[in-house]
Design a protein that fits this description.
The protein is built from 10 helices and 10 strands. It is an alpha/beta fold. The strands form 2 sheets. It has a 6-stranded mixed sheet with strand order 6-7-8-3-9-10, with helices on both faces. The two termini are about 35 Å apart. Bound molecules: adenosine-5'-diphosphate and magnesium ion. The site of adenosine-5'-diphosphate (ADP) has 10 residues, from α1.
Length: about 260
C-alpha cells in the first residue's frame, strides 16, 4: 500500500500539485487519470523520488520515503519497478540482455540464475521466442512487454507505469492492460498507472484517482464513475459520444 498525505509540488512558484491525499492498494490496479498537463507525471515522479515535493508525505507500507536515510531509500528503490512513457529499451542489447540488465546491476545471483530469472519473466509476458532479437526487430507492443518483463525482473513490490499504452493500437493496449493487471494480482503488487485511455479506465480501473489542475478531484472505481455526479469527472470521461451512450445504458440498467 502506498499512501500520499497532503503532497505539494511547484515549479518556479507555479503550483502543479496541490494537497494530494490518496491511498493506493496492493493487489489492485490503481489508476491516475486526468487531462494532459493535469499533473499525472509530476505526481508519479514525486512518488518514486525522481522529483521532491515541497510538502507532504509518501508512505510505502507505512515507511516515509521523503524522510528516510540514503541507505533505506536505496533499498526501497529496489522494491520498485518502473515503466515510463519514454523508457526505451537498450537498442544495442538483445531482448534477453535488456531483461537481465537490472539483475546484473542489482542482484548478487550467479549469471546462470540471472538468466534463468530473465527467461522466466520473458515467459510471463509471452516473449520467450523473441529473447535473441533486438528491440528494433520487434513491434511496439512487444517492446512494451519487454519493458514489463524488465520492470518485474527484480520481483518488485511496487510497480509504476506512466502511460503504458501510448503509441499502441487499442487491441495491443488491451493486451498490455491485461498483462499489468494479471501480474499485479498474481504478485499482490501495489501498481500505479497513469493514463488518459478510457478503455484502460473501463477495463482495469479498480481504484481511480482523478486529477484536475493539480488537485485530486475524485476517487472511486470504474463502477462508481457511472453514478458519479461530479461534473469535471463526467466532462473528462464522457467527452466522447460513445461513453455518454454507455453511461445512459448503465443508468437504465441500475434503475431497472
Ligand atoms: N520540470 C518542470 N518544470 C516546470 N514545469 C513542469 C515541469 N514538469 C512538469 N511541469 C508542468 O507541470 C504540469 C503538469 O505536467 P505533467 O505532470 O507532465 O502532466 P500530465 O502527465 O498529466 O500530462 C504542466 O503544466 C507542466 O508544464
Ligand atoms: Mg504525463
Amino acid at each position: 500500500m502506498i499512501e500520499l498525505k497532503s503532497l505539494y509540488k511547484s515549479f518556479e512558484g507555479k503550483e502543479v500539485l496541490k494537497d494530494i491525499n490518496a491511498v493506493f492498494e496492493n493487489g489492485k490496479t490503481n489508476l491516475i487519470i486526468g487531462q494532459s498537463g493535469s499533473g499525472k507525471t509530476v505526481l508519479m515522479k514525486c512518488i518514486v523520488g525522481l522529483l521532491t515535493p515541497e510538502k507532504g508525505e509518501v508512505l510505502y507500507d507505512g515507511r516515509n520515503f521523503l524522510t528516510m536515510g540514503k541507505k533505506e531509500k536505496k533499498a526501497l528503490r529496489r522494491e520498485m519497478g518502473m515503466i515510463f512513457q519514454s523508457a526505451a529499451l537498450f537498442d544495442s542489447l538483445t531482448v534477453l540482455e535488456n531483461v537481465t540488465f537490472p539483475l546484473d546491476m542489482f542482484s548478487n545471483d550467479t549469471l546462470r540464475d540471472r538468466i534463468k530469472r530473465a527467461r522466466f519473466c520473458l515467459d510471463r509476458v509471452n516473449l520467450i521466442d523473441a529473447q535473441d532479437k533486438y528491440p528494433g526487430e520487434i513491434s511496439g507492443g512487444m517492446q512494451k512487454r519487454v519493458a514489463i518483463a524488465r520492470a518485474i525482473a527484480l520481483n518488485p513490490q511496487y510497480l509504476f507505469c506512466d502511460e503504458p499504452n501510448s503509441g499502441l493500437d487499442p487491441k495491443t493496449s488491451l493486451v498490455i492492460d491485461e498483462l499489468i493487471h494479471g501480474i499485479t494480482t498474481e504478485y499482490n503488487m501495489t501498481t500505479i498507472i497513469n493514463t488518459h485511455d478510457m478503455n484502460s479506465v473501463m477495463g482495469i480501473g479498480e481504484n481511480i484517482i482523478f486529477i484536475y489542475e493539480g488537485r485530486k478531484e475524485w476517487q472511486g472505481s470504474k463502477d462508481d464513475i457511472f453514478t458519479s455526479t461530479n461534473k469535471k469527472l463526467n466532462d473528462f470521461i464522457f467527452a466522447s459520444d460513445l461513453f455518454r451512450k454507455v453511461k445512459e445504458v448503465e443508468i437504465q440498467n441500475i434503475e431497472g
